[in-house]
Design goal:
Layout lengths: L2 H12 L3 H9 L1 H9 L5 H36 L1
Length: about 80
């Protein structure tokens, strides 16, 4: 089982889908099992959940930082 591929597939499905991200945030295990159509062992599904959460947090932090930098650039343009 290629966990990295599973994580990449899940991230591709989650990107830009705020409803699915909210569903994942509320119940990550059930959401992943639904997305993947599999019932993974607890240790595998928990590893995927943690990795996806980490990637989502990094993506969201990057978007926030980008927005902040854009706002700072606009301040100095005036």
């Amino acid at each position: 089982m290629d966990i990295q591929k599973i994580i990449s597939d899940v991230m591709a499905k989650l990107e830009g889908n705020d409803n699915l991200i909210a569903k994942f945030t509320a119940d990550p295990v059930k959401t992943l099992e639904g997305l993947l159509n599999v019932d993974l062992p607890d240790d595998k599904i928990n590893a995927v959940v943690e990795a996806v959460k980490a990637k989502l947090n990094l993506d969201q932090a990057g978007k926030k930082a980008s927005g902040i930098l854009g706002a700072i650039k606009n301040i100095f343009k005036k």
